[in-house]
Fold:
Amino acid sequence: MLNSKLILILLLALPMAIATTATGEDAAAIMEKSHLAYYYAADDGISEVTMRITSKRGKERTKEFVMLRLDEEEGGKQKYYTYFRKPSDISRLTFMVHKIPDGNDQRWIYVPSVDLVKPISADDKNSSFVGSHFSYEDVSGRHWSEDKHSLLPDSTIGDRAVFVIESIPVEKYKGFSRKLSYIDKENYLPLREEYYGKKDKLVRVFTAEKVEEIDGVTTMTARSMENLKKGGKTLIEFSSIEYNVGLDASLFTERFLKNPPRKYIK
Amino acid sequence: MRVFRAFIITGLLLMAVPVAAEVSIDGFLQTLYGGRLDESNPTATEQTASEARLQLRVEDYGDAAEFFGRIDFVYDGADSSDYDWELREGYLKFRLGSRLDFKVGRQILTWGTGDLIFINDEFAKDYRSFFVGRDDQYLKAPQNAIRTEFYSGLGSLSLVWTPRFEPNRLPTGRRLSYFNGQSIVGEGYYFDPTTPAPKFENGEVAMRLSRQVGSYNSSLYFYKGFYKNPMGVVIIDSSMVPIYPKLNVYGASVRGPMAGGIVWVEGGYYDSRQDRDGDDPMMPNSSVTGMIGFERQVASNLTVNGQWQTDKMLDHDTYEKQQTAMNAFVRDETRHMITSRLTKLLNDELLALSLFVFYSPTDEDGYLRASADYKYSDELSLAVGANIFDGTYDATEFGQFQKNDNVYVKFTYGF
Structure:
């Protein structure tokens, strides 16, 4: 009797186990999907960006800029163009990144007051993006193949069901020693990320503050990064977002770095 | 008084413009105070700067063209106790077809790869500003020019024509002393050099052919004009008058990523057209110069670069004989200069510490620029800094400024 009961339980459990394996996704595949949904939405995009940087002492600064993005290959090379509006000391300054996932990115800055084009060494992807608590890598994305991922038990963030994925860098990395990502099961956007540093201490927390539907693309229109180790927090808000506007690769060259394309940057 | 009236009228005009059209205006108000450190400096004033400056930037654009204006109004308390103003930039930009860009009017121009070393950049510099703590943008003096840039799949060709020669702005002895050929002098020795006559043939032509090869940018340069400093002398009515001798420059540069940083190499040949044989003691000899530089981020928020420049004077033997006969300073045939810049950002990039050092082992002189810039808020920033010169001889590039050591404090409100 006992045996048949056990068999029955096993028989009942088996389809469930099979079901989990069938629909349950591989952690790396989830991270890839998430990366594409978050960093490679549509083929190109334009957005007005407001960045509020709060220091550990509570002082707030605001930066406003326009950002243009062009995907050259899905999950691969990308080009970014940034035109600063505020504050006054950096207004009209432009900044360009050619993101090369399997190599070193290339970055240039143009300072209009001295008519100076300058390449910037892009060795350190962990350096701050324009003085904020986001790093360059946070803004342009870390390739999923650089970490080893494992799936932890599912969870929820607010009312959203999420995958929880633990990522450990394949090579020793100063950005983090371990990362937990909470990825929306429906749209694959990362709703929360926890970055752990030395002695497995939580050092930074990323939060998706607002997710909206724009031109049929589920878009994170506000996100924040809090630094728990050094203090301080940055909130980035996106507005006037447009997708698939047909940006040409020629816009991401020195010519347009010096002459902002007025068609897109008003 | 005329200047003052112009100031008022321009101000009123500027205020009227945004009412007429939706033109954007921004800018800053800045006060700069600086004083010399060396009591023995023969300058007329002990203050190297005491000024209030209002910069207004105006911008407008339509479908086919855009306009940009940058105008400075200054009250100068260190020198003239007078109002002054300057149109720093006032240009329009437009495009003809898809390959040709124009920028026409008063503009700041820069090219080349060096960090504060200019080999093929023969656009006007303002050392009066550079040495007293004004913002970096004032190192460049504006030129009235037409810039044309042609783009093709092969690269780009830039052509800048400056119809009227625009010289460098050098210390005059009033705030900053300099070497006048005999000794370090203050006010009273300065002659405005004779500038080339306003003829078409005396316009400046600067060309650059640029091409991206992989991640490297390579350029060829050509300049036809005049030495930007009064390097020559002519005798008029038995007195010596400084002039800007004719000059051609031919050069090349390469810049790109290497070893986690950026590397650049640039060279140029200075063809002194009024002294090709190098035997005229009143004119500069031709020379060849080159530099190599490297920059990288060495720690978080710490960027360091280094440059080495060398230049060789042609026909140095003749020059040496001439100088010795006149009992004048003889420079080395081959000079070397090394420079280094350190930039450290602290406190979420609110505080920027910067150090730039020039040192020449052959001229035995040097120049150190140090500054700390703190952004108190998005609008308000405070900077303090120092300019320190040293030299064994009075006649060298930085040695002549050795009495001009100064410190300054600067407040800026941006809007």
In short: The CA atoms of residues 126 and 169 of chain B lie 5 Å apart. Chain B touches chain A through 49 residues (CB under 8 Å). Chain B is about 10% helix and 55% strand.
